[in-house]
Q: What sequence folds into this?
């Protein structure tokens, strides 16, 4: 499968992944042929890109959790957020019970998959970006927590904190939260209040357990003390927050924003690696890098020497150095193991 921007689609292509409406109903099923009408429908529905199946690409990527579970988590989070925004603690409490059950389902899906690796990039829908982001952060946080060796009860607490890590944004001024561009220094100072606002609401209105609340309060703290809201550092930052910080930043930088393009997965992982020990917990950074494969089989890549190649094999512990088959350039047809040829590096994906 290949990710294609909506504007790159043309009739006759085959959809590679089932898509859903905002209500969680199936919009288009995997395997349908793309038409001009469908392209217009995707644009109207807020999709930015989709997976397209290509006959020559037999390797099918799969989500780490079932699509229906992911979609239900998005919808349940929306209902909870609406209750919080409407200042309705009773309805929020009812919806919280649903969220806890959803979190338990997600953890059940992932907990026993100790060697799980993420290859599929979740396709963002601009109409529900915040909810999708929060669900992605939950999924990546669970994978990281399992990789760290936390027990199931702890993983569930991490998952709930990750799912609700941005709930404090509900209390931010609309003109700042929905601004289509970078924030001014003054606006950013205001936005920095959202972890504390979320923490306080969950403490005062829903009496959430302290460890989960701390995951929300500290998720923008940096390992070197340069974060906010309190400038905590090292292990003074709650473990759950240190986990969420990695997952949150990763999903943020691989997502399109109104004022910036999404970063390719390979570059995003380099960013996370570069932040290990400064922004992020170094041990968690190492674990996370072992859980994301930026170059699945059949990914097209451009190399530093100008050749274009397709990934044909992946080394489990060295995702950044796969085996590739040259398909364009002076070495066309040559098979290369990048783990053995250090003079070539992947420049970007195509």
A:
């Amino acid at each position: 499968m290949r990710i294609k921007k909506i504007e790159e689609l043309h009739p006759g292509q085959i959809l590679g992944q089932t898509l859903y409406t905002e209500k969680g109903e199936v919009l288009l099923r995997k395997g349908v042929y793309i038409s001009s009408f469908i392209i217009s429908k995707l644009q109207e529905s807020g999709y930015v890109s989709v997976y397209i199946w290509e006959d020559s690409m037999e390797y099918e990527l799969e989500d780490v959790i079932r699509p229906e579970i992911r979609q239900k988590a998005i919808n349940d989070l929306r209902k909870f957020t609406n209750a919080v925004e409407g200042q309705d603690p009773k309805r929020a409490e009812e919806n919280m019970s649903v969220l806890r059950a959803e979190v338990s389902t997600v953890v059940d899906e992932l907990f026993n998959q100790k060697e799980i690796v993420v290859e599929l990039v979740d396709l963002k829908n601009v109409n529900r970006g915040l909810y999708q982001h929060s669900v992605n952060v939950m999924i990546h946080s669970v994978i990281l927590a399992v990789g760290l060796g936390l027990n199931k009860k702890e993983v569930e607490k991490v998952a709930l904190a990750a799912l609700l890590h941005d709930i404090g944004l509900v209390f931010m001024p609309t003109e700042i939260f929905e601004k289509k561009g970078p924030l001014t220094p003054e606006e950013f100072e205001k936005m920095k209040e959202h972890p504390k606002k979320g923490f306080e609401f969950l403490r005062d209105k829903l009496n959430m357990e302290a460890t989960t609340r701390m995951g929300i309060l500290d998720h923008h703290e940096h390992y070197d003390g340069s974060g906010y809201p309190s400038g905590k550092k090292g292990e003074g930052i709650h473990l759950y927050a240190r986990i969420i910080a990695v997952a949150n930043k990763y999903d943020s930088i691989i997502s399109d924003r109104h004022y910036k393009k999404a970063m390719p997965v390979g570059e995003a992982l380099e960013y996370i690696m570069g932040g290990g020990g400064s922004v992020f917990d170094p041990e968690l950074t190492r674990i996370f890098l072992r859980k994301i494969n930026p170059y699945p089989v059949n990914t097209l890549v451009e190399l530093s020497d100008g050749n274009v190649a397709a990934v044909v094999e992946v080394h489990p512990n060295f995702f950044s150095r796969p085996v590739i088959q040259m398909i364009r350039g002076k070495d066309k047809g040559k098979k290369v193991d990048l783990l053995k040829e250090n003079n070539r590096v992947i420049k970007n994906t195509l």
Remarks:
- DSSP finds twelve helices and ten strands in the chain.
- The chain has three domains: 2-53, 67-289, 300-349.
- The two ends are 12 Å apart (CA to CA).
